Amino acid sequence: MMASVVASGSRDKQSLTLNGVDPETCMIVFKNHWAQVVKILEKHDPLRSTGGGLVGSGSGLRFGPIPGDEASAVQNYVEHMLFLLMEEDSGQAGAMGPILEFVVMENVMEKLFLWSLRREFTDDMKIEQLKMYEMLVGQSRQPLLHHKPVLRPLMMLLSSCSGATTPAVEAELVILLNQLCSILAKDPSVLELFFHTSEDQGAANFLIFSLLIPFIHREGTVGQQARDALLFIMSLSAENHVVANHIAENTYFCPVSICYLKVFLFQCPVFHVIT
Q1: Does residue 216 have a pLDDT over 70?
Q2: Model confidence, pTM
Q3: Strand (E) positions, 36-110?
């Protein structure tokens, strides 16, 4: 439901910009859009509603069906909000812009994700949210990943995509993981936040590394992107003992690599000549 148009537009080098637009006006528009999104979603929130919007019972309550016109309105509002956030510049001395500050203070990204979970979190919704973060972390003018209210729902989304998923979800997941690893290689200061946020989710200390492992021996584009992402992490491990220790002691990367190396050597003609 979220970010489909904006995300696809970013893939096509969307040319819209906010040059010359008053930042205060952008802030007003963002707040107004968010207020409309909250109004629509809370109307169908089973934790608030006492009417026919309830589906399920107890802790399994979900949103009831949202009418098509309201769903379309939420999508349009969120897409515009994400574009405003992406185009916002940092404040003086690198301070957060007012829109990003509002997103952080109001926990906007996590609320959007949790609302999605309380609906039927389909593969299509996962793909849209993965694309949304691809756009935000790749094109935002501010370092969004430095802020836990942005990073935490991202890690929750990544965790929800682990395990059995469709090829389409896997493809978008690996694209985003590759992008995140590239950012980590360029800005290692974010690394500590990734570890701590993974712990918040009860996940392995370095979630993005754990998610990459199943894909590194895949053929095709997905496998190549996973291996490239892994190389970014390995470059970090050469300088960061926390990453190195985690890979060596808390993952199956070393024994798995040894097994594949043994298979490769056994199939190598030179190996048979030597033996």
Answers
A1: yes
A2: 0.77
A3: 54-55, 62-63
132-145 per-position pLDDT tens digit? 999 999 999 999 99
Q: What is residue 3's DSSP assignment?
A: S
Give dist(CA 19, CA 175) in Å, integer. Answer: 29
Which of 146, 241, 263, 252 lies closest to 196, judged by CA? 146
Which one-letter amino acid corresponds to residue 266?
Answer: F
Buried b (16+ CB within 10 A) or exposed e, 160-176: bbeeebeeebbbbbbbb
Give 34-50 pLDDT, tens digit per residue.
999 999 888 877 666 55
Instruction: Specify the amino acid at residue 25.
Output: T
**Each residue of 79-88: pLDDT tens digit?**
999 999 999 9
Sole residue written with tokens 């769903």: 71
Question: What is the rounded CA–CA span in Å between residue 173 and residue 135?
Answer: 13
Start-to-end Cα distance in the chain = 59
Q: Decide if 68 contacts 27 (C-beta within 8 A).
A: no
